[in-house]
Amino acid sequence: MLRYALKRLGLGIIIVSVAMVMLFAMIYVIPGDPASVALGPRATPEMIQALRSRMGLDQPIWIQFFRFYFSALRGDLGTEVLSGRPVLDVVFEQLPYTLALIAGAISWSVLLGIPLGCIAAVRRGGFVDRVIGILSVAVIAVPSFVIAIYSLLIFAVALQWLPAIGAGEPGNLASQLKHLALPSLAIGVGWVGYIARMVRASMLETLEASHIRTARAFGLTDRRITYSYALRIAILPTVTLLGVGIGNMVSSAVFAEIVFARPGIGKLVYEAISVRNYPVVTGAVLVTTVFFVVVNALADILIGALDPRVRTSLN
Amino acid sequence: MTVLDVKDLSVDFATEAGTLQALRKVSLKVPANRIVGVVGESGCGKSTLINAVLGLLADNGRVTAGQILFEGKSDLVHLDGTGMRALRGQRIATVFQDPMGALNPVLSVGKQMRDIQYRSGRSRKEKDALSVEMLRKVRIPDPEHRLAQFPHEFSGGMKQRIAIAMALLMRPSLLIADEPTTALDATLEVAIIELLKDLQKQIGCSVLFISHHLGVIAELCDEMIVMYAGEVVERGSTRDIFHNPRHPYTKKLLACDPARLARREPRLPTIPGTLPDLRNRPKGCVFQSRCELADDVCSTMPPDTALSTSHVARCWHTDETAGAAA
Ligand SMILES: Nc1ncnc2c1ncn2[C@@H]1O[C@H](COP(=O)(O)OP(=O)(O)O)[C@@H](O)[C@H]1O
Ligand code: SF4
Ligand SMILES: [Mg+2]
Fold first, then answer.
1. Does residue B141 sit in the same domain as residue B274?
2. Where does chain B show beta strands of DSSP type E?
3. Atom number, ligand 2, closest to the C-alpha of residue B293
4. Which residues sit with their C-beta closer than 6 Å to ligand 2?
């Protein structure tokens, strides 16, 4: 397990490093000099020159990159050009909102998708199975921002069941959860469909396995067989799917945060891009990449915890 | 006493190409404390027979006629799900062919053995103690520690021993073994057979032992049943069947190559001709198309002819089959 963890860590560092090269390259090729952009049209050449050397922009490119890389490793993602605040602080201020949003989306998709998949598998071929199948395909097919806009119009504007915008009162958990409900559903609902289909398929496969026949032959109840003996196995592909799907959820979060006017990384990046606040863009993307890598590692660890065969193969 | 008494059992499967008659009027008895072997080519209905006994026929399968009396009283054909579950694993236990896939891969052996005892009302500790005792009986070394391990951490032979331990955990009166050694190599097979023989005596249960392997049947079983195309064509003591086979199919099977028995050939000999289509059974005797003695009378269903108190063959011409193997 330790060797595996180290390997995962190494892989994570490589992914993050590649992301950093790409980010650095992106900033480099974007037209417009960050220093003159930051200072605005009325800056004098001297002022620009001064800022350029303060930002290290007059150094050779590879030195710029290594500075960028190693200070990022130390947690220094630079400072916001105008306010002078550390980028890391700015990003971390927004991060919890996005994490809550994604956690909410995962909750929706898991809490609805897994039971629906199980029910469809147990009632395979029946009416319920067909309805779940059609709904799954429908929610997969519709883009999440469309669902975001419609759920906003229906549940917030027309029915007024849930608040439309914002993240809720600080410190008031109930209010924050209410504000979380719609945007996280908008992100998660497509995943409900994916997971329901995935669980159905792997459940059907597992229920055919000979160890399930053994469990039946030993007189275990259908309930225990379905939800303990079969689901424990059928759930594994879903965990992997979710680990990979996190990246996709993060990009849906950008839309959800804009539509629902929620604070968060997505909104931060969106606004930073529109004013060419590059250090914030880079910092936010980097933090998101690290988050993605960590979640993937967690998904793998979870698989190891759920599947002893994986555990053994790692030792 | 008779532990299992199957009377005129018929099972159909509904398929897209029509009704498949998998078992037709199958009768057999498993007396207390006896090992009864079942032989027959693949597809002759051995697994269907045990699934019917266990109440685990596939959704498209149905018992159309007959009775399955267990311990002299309950007719398993009409027992509901709850009643059947109370017997399965408790009074009737099963060991399946595939030791690799027969155990749940993500649950520890100890957990699976505890779950089998869920009706016992014992504490977790008592359950584990019983599991350890059973694992020791099937000669798993260091059972206390191995309880926490998962199936993939055991070899194929060990897994089959564990499966046997699980089956015997609740001291059933009937152990059904569906080709338990087919997937194992010859040395492991011998060890498992010895073990089964030993445990059967210790526990005092009956065994219904399904195998392709005539040598193993001859060695292990007190009585045997020969199946062909969904019918029991001959049954009797192992001695009767091997020394005085009276159904033409049994005679062919045994005459094919006596050396096979000695060589422990794990497969049944092949005899010329093809199996009848179970969706379109011939009228009368199922063996007609391959039988040298077939004549007009054979196109009506042959009777189960009693040759002695325990020896029965389903054939019109048992008077012509006495004597040396054909
Ligand atoms: N669920 C099923 N649906 C249709 N046919 C089946 C089903 N199960 C078994 N059969 C058929 O019933 C016959 C007996 O099968 P089986 O009992 O598995 O034989 P054996 O165990 O002796 O090899 C075979 O012809 C097989 O194809
Ligand atoms: S009944 Fe006729 S066909 Fe069938 S086995 Fe006997 S002799 Fe052969
Ligand atoms: Mg079989």
1. no
2. 2-15, 18-31, 35-39, 61-70, 74-75, 92-95, 174-178, 206-210, 223-228, 231-237, 304-306, 312-314
3. 7
4. B 248, 285, 287-288, 291, 293-294, 298, 302, 315-317
